[in-house]
């Protein structure tokens, strides 16, 4: 069934608008004194009766002037029913009137929703066709001969500008909901004023093209000598109360103007202006706060420094008895290189560290445990490895999740639930396969040339030909595009391409006029028959072209070809599998054939299919395999180097720790595999990020503890037996390692509260992997240290322990742990610590770090939420180019549906008038509000009024739309006259005396209540409407346009469970645009739900992926607060020191805030990945703080001396074992082929490592030296062998 061009039929709406017959060559110009005897006076006709017919059957009027005629009563009633302004005599016969009536019925469905517009429009053609004063404003200027009969060939139509203005003003905003556009685009070619509308109606069209076959010249002033007067029938305003239109069709109506406008959602941006400088309030506030803090700090510093100097001068004559006095000095000189915990057992001093309850029992546990492990290394190693291997058995159930909706959408997501409701009650949104064919910039000016050329269109035909030939193998059957594509009218695919202007047939290219036909269709796509698509609907150029500005389609620089493919709710169904099979063949065709063909033409081609993202995510699993492997090898090499002693050629093969480093890396991998195995065993699917990132993270975290443990053992005196050294080492670093590891586990675990599944699962896997790694370090790795030290002391070669050689190693190096401190340790104690003890340095450090923290708070407000799709894909993915081109060329946004649940259509309910937007609807109805919101797209993000099945249904059953809802005498549905069986589909002939001659309209006005159907009428006729095909005689048929807009299940009860109204978002280019558009749509729906007392929600395909960003800041702050709070509680419980815990809390908070500031500087967006990184940064940052803080608390002396001691013992381990190990692993990730690793794991973790290093080894020592807690190291009597408890904070 062909949807004819409405405007071309409009232009023959009246029987006087007759088409010039072929072969009529003669033209006669008629004046007021012509031989025909034409007269211009009252009750006189300029055209009367029918004098011929065209070859297509359309009748032609006679150009003969004659007096008006009084019609019989029946004809008079018919005329007045359509033309109430015409009474008495008329200038049309009954056949003429029937022709008029049959032709205006094609336009009525467009305008019937606005009675004022429809009345004005009908008056124009009623006066032209039947007015008894016709000769006063119609002058036949040319005639032609058809079968020896003269027929009208051209006229002047004199009509006042006032009527034209009134007509245009009443119709200019009337919507045609089916196409989300104005009705004037169809019946007026998008005219912007009444003169353009008149010009469109009156232009002379070439043969076989739409438009008037003769010139109709509209004039506003008649010659004075002619005796003619311009037609000036009164017009109705669209705001007229008797013929009032809805607010959607008449926004200027007083009723609509009094309606409160929708609230504007502007970002609140407080700012202050100083002359030409404009500053944000938060920036100004933080600047003032910084000045105040620095000033207070400087004042306190000078005062404190002055008092300290006075105390120093007064103490010079006093014995050195403070803080341990001479005894401590002697001990410090004698045992400078001994660990702090060794002082606890120093018999000559009676020095003892007063530990907290928890630390005391932990030290006691590690002392006994270290001795036991050193005595039973084989047992401990075997049991620990066996347990982890047992967990690894779960890997047999290992599965990887690659479906985007399962990775990035939480199961409790409101948007996901709404999508599920939409898919199950209406229909799943179609799958999209897309090609973007674009030109390349000119070498001269760099501008993009137009894509609309003959060569490019022919190339597009070649591409389409290859696409049509795709045959994908699915279970032995060959699948083509036609098998899976969306077919609105169940016949042809709804392919969105400019080739639709040629009916997708290359043979029509020359027949239709080539490129010129395309340019013509770009301006008349709604009205030209030859521009109609194969799926019988106009093709909006904005869906098939890209890279143009405004409505200048001719300058478009890209063809956009979209293949909508049917989707299915059941992802396992055959329909979806067939589509996936075809999509794979489609992508392969583009890569193998289309890309080379397009590149030869100096064009670009980007492409995508619905399954592309999922397939590329699968490919990503191998994209960075080499990068990850290199990262592990580099870290392994560094571990082996840093664990070993200072390289010496004579003893390197014994002192190296390659085998120990390799064993440590294997333990890390075992912890990761054990974590994955346990979760796989309980049915949790893994992700690609888990497989690639967690091993690296756990390795970076695990290496720290390895270095700290090995270095602690090395620091023990050689005189002690190995089990004593192991025991003392665990006592020295065990509590701080435990504290750091527990903090990391808790921080990772907090990430499991993130709603995004990929990040939640990542956090769960990482938390367990870090826990297992810690347990393996204090069990298996300690045993490996025992074996390695035994190997070295027995002079066996590293990596080949079976080989024993004689060496002077022991003598030259004075034994394991007996050598002098390393270069880094000497630097920390001799240079770094003394430099930080200078008051000037302290002031500068505090000022800089506080300044950067406050600046980061200001910067963090500029961090945008979102996650670019192209970031999660490999850099060499073809989707990278597609996303770039889609953002650059697309000029239409994603479809937006407003879904109404439980719509009560019964006559007792107000719901119908609360939803619709035609006459009699409430001014604040849903569709009127959508139309009003579309007027402010910059805040509402709604581009167009909604396509309303309800409006079109109410118009379709309206008695005025007499060509739409019709019934046979037996009460069954009767289609329009231009559809079968009324019209032969084969020959196209329509016989008005055929099977449909007795069809009548479904209802008379008396059958309806205020133009609204009763409950029974609504229930009976809704299925008719949804199955009715649109055509020229009734463009409001709902089949195709609204097939999936209404859920008919259970609607017989008077309630429609689900129905949707379709519109479009504005073009969305940035992630923040998607987030803001979703927020605006949800706020709009919430407001309408409250106002209408109905449940309304918005739905678009991207909503479920972007819902998380609506509350991402709240999620981030809550999780960070929980993570920092958890670390604070752990520190407080273990150390029983509020002072220590508060300092660690301060440093952690500053690191996190600074990291967010760096995110703003690097344009890193806030999303679930970055939130997980921020939460994990809390745990990782603990390592930079806790070891230094613990060493400081157990050192003796004043604060500067204790900072020096802490940096001397733990500073080197923090730098080499924590900072450098993480730095080495992070740097390798910059070579990743996947942008997500570069942005979120290289950049963020590099920033974290640098910030952690600076805060841990620069800021923290300064803070401790100024505000650190008292020492736990006291001179006491040697107590019993039990932990002492300090109650001090």
From TrEMBL:
Gene3D superfamilies assigned to the protein according to its UniProt record, in alphabetical order: Multidrug efflux transporter AcrB transmembrane domain
Signal peptide bounds: 1-21
Sorted UniProt keywords: Cholesterol metabolism, Disulfide bond, Glycoprotein, Lipid metabolism, Lipid transport, Membrane, Signal, Steroid metabolism, Sterol metabolism, Transmembrane, Transmembrane helix, Transport
Name of this protein: SSD domain-containing protein
A Pfam family per the record: NPC1_N
Domain SSD, chain residue ranges per copy: 624-787
Family (UniProt): Belongs to the patched family.
Major place of residence: membrane
Membrane topology: Multi-pass membrane protein
PROSITE patterns in the cross-refs: SSD (PS50156)
Cell location: Endomembrane system
Transmembrane segment boundaries: 284-303, 377-396, 625-646, 658-682, 688-713, 761-787, 836-859, 1116-1135, 1142-1162, 1174-1194, 1206-1228, 1240-1264
Signal in keyword set: yes
